[in-house]
Every structure is written in structure tokens, then in C-alpha cells.
Design goal:
Largest sheet: 4 strands, antiparallel
Structural class: alpha+beta
CATH topology of one domain: Aminopeptidase
Number of helices: 4
Radius of gyration: 15 Å
CATH superfamily of one domain: Gcn5-related N-acetyltransferase (GNAT)
Strand content: 25-35%
CATH class of one domain: Alpha Beta
Helix content: 25-40%
Strand order of the largest sheet: 1-2-3-4
């Protein structure tokens, strides 16, 4: 199970403060820090099957990720419909192992599901440390080099 300091919610369980904190963290990282100019908050955030996970402190969310189930994406991802995405850690909280802890908890929640993700190249070692393997060539997504990574459970 997850650790007591990690919040796991579906969209219908979000409070207004949860929505605000998520939007602030993701905007700070993706728009301001990485200067991504593509859609960040999307329909998958509000999808009833999307699992949102995060950690917080007195300043708001410190780390966040989501698990998305999208059957239409399976064809482009070796038949895998579940993905890990929007993984972020607040700048002042980096280097504390939060990303790996949150990722490991997401894998626990995912159980025997195979997963894919689009990893920014500098984060590949983190994902590899929990069993994801790079597949194919580097591609550009939102102006940043990424690699497809797959984690098969063997189930």
C-alpha cells in the first residue's frame, strides 16, 4: 500500500485546494521552468479512471504524478494502455528521493499492469531504476527530447 504521507485521489475526490495546488506545481515546472508551450492541464486530469498521486508540505504539493488508462494509446505503446505521466517535483524539494518514492508507490497501485511513459532523457535513469526499459529512438515532445519507456510485469 502507499505510505501515509502520499495522497491518492480520483478527480471526483479533489478539493478546490487540491486542484489549485496541482495546477500551481505543474505550471511552475512545465510552463515556467521548462517553458513548454503546449497543453498541460488536459481532459485526462478530469477523467474518472485517472489516478492522481502526490505529496505535500506547508507550501503545497512537493511531488505529483498521474496514472492514465487510455485504450486508444495502446497501439502506439506496444499494446499497453496504462501510463505514468506528468511526474514533477517542486524545485526546492529535488534531491530528496521524492520522485522515486512516489513512482514506487504508483507501481504498487498499478499491480500487475504493464505501464509505459514518455521520459525526458535526463530522467531515464530514475525510471530504469524501477524496471522501465527504453524502447525506440529519441523523439521530441513539447520541444523536449523524450524516450518511450516500457515496464512489463510478466503477468
Amino acid at each position: 500500500m502507499t505510505r501515509s504521507d502520499t495522497v491518492v485521489k480520483m478527480w471526483g475526490e479533489f478539493t478546490p485546494d487540491d486542484v489549485f495546488d496541482m495546477a500551481v506545481l505543474r505550471t511552475e515546472i512545465f510552463f515556467l521552468e521548462q517553458q513548454i508551450d503546449e497543453e498541460e492541464l488536459d481532459a485526462w486530469d478530469r477523467h474518472p479512471d485517472t489516478v492522481h498521486m502526490w505529496r505535500s508540505d506547508h507550501q503545497g504539493m512537493t511531488a505529483y504524478l498521474r496514472l492514465v488508462h487510455d485504450e486508444s494509446a495502446a497501439g502506439a505503446h506496444q499494446g499497453i494502455a496504462w501510463s505514468v505521466g506528468r511526474m514533477v517535483v517542486r524545485a526546492d524539494c529535488r534531491g530528496q528521493g521524492l520522485a522515486k518514492q512516489l513512482l514506487e508507490e504508483a507501481l504498487e497501485i498499478s499491480g500487475e499492469r504493464d505501464l509505459y511513459l514518455h521520459a525526458q532523457e535526463y530522467v531515464i535513469p530514475l525510471y530504469a531504476s524501477v524496471g522501465f526499459e527504453p524502447v525506440g529512438d529519441t523523439f521530441m515532445e513539447a520541444g523536449i527530447a523524450h524516450r518511450l519507456m516500457i515496464r512489463r510485469t510478466g503477468a
